[in-house]
């Protein structure tokens, strides 16, 4: 490990153990694996997976702790979440270093994850006392009402691309509603989730209410299949999401799935190009393209396509990719060298099929030889190439922008919808009527007009088609962690004759 990285490891104060069970960090008792910094391949920690016995005990402990937590005042639950958010912000320097080591994103992006995680906990705190039921018109001596109760024990499985943020995004709403949660940390970025669980414990969360387990897909399979799990909240690939949904069906568990995307960002001929280009670059190259709602397909109207491609290429070639801790780096590493090679293979296959690589498609010059880096890549894909080209059809999850031309509005919408995914999309135009028509016609759960990538933490997010099932955030996302109970009170029951009399 280099002296520079050692200093960041010291600042990050890596957890000494990696499962968070019954209110404290513990070893998992399972097989050991090494987690590495994606920027240079250096070993960070040896992690013990959570063995089957401790995993089962984690779920049982969560189930035992949940009823008391549910009986806790919603205002008290909110106070815990707000106190944890305060602690996250106070420890932002340490946590940003931890995320950048764990994940390989730039230090600036890692700090953004800390800020968003704190905001998510505060947003969830705001919902805790406001998850309302209903009363219905009285019918004689009968009072009829409904209220919301927690689901019970939630199993959460999160991806590697923003482990601190996704821990907050899952745990915040679940805890606000009075649930307990057992969360599986991502095997490729396992360090941040147990630290956030510790922050919540320091803020007053009772032992057992949030458990963090470690390991590979087999640990996840055992977790979601556990008979005492009532709900599964999963963010990850569509392939694994199908397996999770099958497990949920077998156990009659409630699924909440946020899966892959292949989002189309449409630039019409009358668009204001300067902000459109800014947002396009950020929309695909932020976090090295490892975001489910990245604008990985750019659709450009014929009349401006040449100018847009030239300007995009020129700017993409100037983006600095490298050491996540170098302030000059604008794009950091992918999660592993294997992922980097896979991404480069997708680009190579597109080029072999006839696509034109305008820039990138290689490792960036000067990057650490053991680092998982891919240069920002722009690929022009002619319309006569097969529509099932993996670059167009599959989620690349890397810094690769596929650009296609379109003729008119109907053509743009048809291209945008020609995808198995339906997570996000956007369009750029000065014509508001056309923008709204496009937003209605494109089958996605999230859509930007004259913007791309900005998220509203109080608005729901989720996808159509193979991009998932259900919504996170906003009212639907917080209500997803509750059950609705209907209660009927007969206030005159003592005076009424028995029906069988």
TrEMBL record:
Domain Aldehyde dehydrogenase: 32-487
Family, as annotated: Belongs to the aldehyde dehydrogenase family.
The keyword Ribonucleoprotein is assigned to this record: no
Biological source species: Phytohabitans suffuscus
Source species taxonomy: Bacteria, Bacillati, Actinomycetota, Actinomycetes, Micromonosporales
Domain of life of the organism encoding this protein: Bacteria
One Pfam family cited in the UniProt record for this chain: Aldedh
GO molecular function annotations of the record: oxidoreductase activity, acting on the aldehyde or oxo group of donors, NAD or NADP as acceptor
Residues annotated as the enzyme's active site: 258
Name by which UniProt lists this protein: Carnitine dehydratase
Record's keyword annotation contains ATP-binding: no
Keywords: Oxidoreductase
InterPro entries: Ald_DH/histidinol_DH, Ald_DH_C, Ald_DH_CS_GLU, Ald_DH_N, Aldehyde_DH_dom
């Amino acid at each position: 490990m280099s002296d520079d990285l050692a200093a960041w490891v010291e600042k990050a104060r890596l957890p000494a153990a990696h499962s968070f069970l019954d209110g404290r960090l513990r070893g998992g008792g399972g097989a050991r694996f090494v987690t590495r910094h994606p920027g240079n391949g250096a070993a960070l920690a040896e992690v013990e997976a959570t063995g089957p016995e401790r995993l089962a005990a984690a779920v049982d402990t969560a189930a035992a702790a949940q009823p008391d937590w549910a009986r806790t005042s919603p205002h008290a639950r909110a106070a815990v979440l707000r106190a944890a958010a305060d602690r996250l912000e106070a420890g932002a320097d340490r946590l940003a270093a931890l995320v950048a080591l764990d994940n390989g994103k730039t230090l600036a992006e890692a700090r953004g994850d800390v800020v968003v995680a704190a905001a998510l906990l505060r947003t969830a705190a705001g919902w805790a006392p406001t998850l309302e039921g209903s009363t219905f018109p009285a019918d004689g001596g009968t009072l009829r009402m409904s209220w919301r109760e927690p689901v019970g024990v939630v199993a959460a499985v999160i991806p590697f691309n923003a482990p601190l943020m996704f821990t907050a995004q899952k745990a915040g709403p679940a805890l606000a509603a009075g649930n307990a949660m057992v969360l599986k940390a991502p095997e490729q970025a396992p360090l941040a989730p147990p630290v956030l669980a510790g922050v919540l414990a320091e803020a007053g969360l009772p032992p057992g209410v949030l458990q963090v387990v470690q390991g590979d897909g087999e640990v996840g399979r055992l977790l979601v299949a556990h008979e005492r799990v009532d709900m599964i909240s999963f963010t990850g690939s569509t392939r694994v999401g199908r397996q999770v949904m099958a497990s949920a069906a077998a156990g009659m568990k409630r699924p909440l799935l946020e899966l892959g995307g292949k989002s189309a960002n449409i630039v019409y001929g009358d668009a204001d190009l300067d902000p459109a280009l800014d947002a396009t670059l950020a929309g695909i190259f932020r976090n090295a393209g490892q975001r489910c709602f990245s604008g990985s397909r750019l659709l450009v109207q014929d009349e401006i396509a040449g100018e847009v491609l030239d300007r995009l290429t020129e700017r993409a070639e100037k983006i600095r990719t490298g050491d996540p801790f170098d302030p000059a780096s604008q794009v950091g590493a992918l999660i592993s060298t294997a992922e980097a090679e896979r991404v480069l293979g997708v680009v190579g296959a597109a080029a072999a099929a006839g696509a034109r690589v305008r820039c990138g498609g290689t490792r960036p010059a000067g990057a650490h030889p053991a680092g998982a880096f891919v240069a920002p890549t722009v690929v022009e894909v002619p319309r006569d190439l097969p529509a099932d080209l993996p670059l167009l059809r599959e989620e690349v999850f890397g810094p690769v922008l596929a650009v296609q031309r379109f003729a008119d509005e109907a053509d743009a919408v048809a291209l945008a919808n020609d995808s198995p995914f339906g997570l996000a999309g956007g369009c750029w135009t000065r014509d508001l009527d056309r923008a709204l028509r496009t937003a209605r016609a494109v089958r996605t759960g999230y859509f930007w007009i004259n913007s791309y990538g900005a998220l509203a933490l109080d608005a729901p997010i989720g996808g159509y088609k193979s991009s998932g099932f259900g919504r996170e955030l906003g009212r639907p996302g917080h209500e997803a962690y509750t059950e609705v109970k209907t209660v009927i009170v007969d206030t005159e029951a003592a005076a009424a004759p028995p029906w069988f009399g």
